[in-house]
Amino acid sequence: MKIHVRDDLPQAFLEVIRGDDLKSIALAGGSTPRKVYERWSKQRCPWESMHFFFGDERMVPPDDARSNFRMAREALLAQVPAKVHRIRGEDPPEAAASSYERELQQFFGADGRFDLVILGVGTDGHTASLFPGTSVLDSDRWAEAVWSESQSEHRVSLTFPVLNAARKTIVLAKGADKAEVITRWVNGRATDLPIGRLKGNIHLLLDETAASKL
Ligand code: 6PG
Predict the structure, then answer these.
(1) DSSP secondary structure string, the chain?
(2) CA–CA gap between residue 41 and residue 143 (Å, rounded)
(3) CB of 29 closer than 6 A to ligand 1?
(4) What is the model's pTM?
(5) Ligand 1 centroid to 23 CA: how many Å?
């Protein structure tokens, strides 16, 4: 894991992906990525050849304020001519998970290797919608419907077989509330948390407050 501590997370992100040939990207939801996506949208990239997927989605319509697709569309996807493969939040969760998994398999074939996966991390150690104590943590499917007790909402999430196959993974975290979970993870004390199961070529991008206990 490579750790980058910069208050300018968007700039740190652009530096970490500089020179990468990104054709398949899984976007994170939540609030942290918004400014990163907004800065990325202003860059000169081969957008026409890029395919954006999602690491997870809240099971709400695409124009709902909670929708990860809506956030990404506002910040990035409406500004660039890339192809978008959203999770259909308006559908029943299991149907949405199955259709998303089919779309992933049609695109990737057998390997499911994203060029880039962008993730956030929750204070409880979840990432994407892989929450502590849920059975999806052990799933060998590529996408699963999840009930999040802590968020009291249905989600669809990529699973660890896909997340851990990525060529590059960027985890974004900012704010003092993330400092504890980040320190546990970096110090190898998060094996009992979902984020502790993440493997691969991981770049952890932190602002100063999220890094304050390292
Ligand atoms: C979501 C995300 C989730 C998020 C973390 C961090 O749908 O909410 O996929 O995993 O990345 O909860 O969220 P913040 O960036 O809002 O702190």
Answers:
(1) -EEEE-S-HHHHHHHHHTT---SEEEE--SSTHHHHHHHHHTS---GGG-EEEESEEESS-TTSTT-HHHHHIIIIITTS--EE----TTS-HHHHHHHHHHHHHHHHTT----SEEEE---TTS-BTTB-TT-GGGG--SSEEEEEETTTTEEEEEE-HHHHTT-S-EEEEE-SGGGHHHHHHHHTT--TTSGGGG--SSEEEEE-TTTTTT-
(2) 27
(3) yes
(4) 0.98
(5) 23
For atom 8 of ligand 1, the residue with the nearest CA is 30
Cα 150 to ligand 1 centroid, rounded to whole Å = 12
**120 CB less than 6 Å from ligand 1?**
yes
Tell me the mean pLDDT in the region 198-209: 98
Indicate the length of the chain as a whole number: 214
Expressed in angstroms and rounded, the spacing between residue 29 Cα and the centre of ligand 1 is 5
- Candidate from 9, 64, 68, 130 with most ligand 1 atoms within 8 A of CB, to mutate: 68
Please write the tens of the pLDDT for every residue from 71-125: 999 999 999 999 999 999 999 999 999 999 999 999 999 989 999 999 999 999 9
- Distance (Å, rounded) from C-alpha 131 to C-alpha 149? 9
Q: Which two three-digit tokens encode residue 138?
A: 């052990």
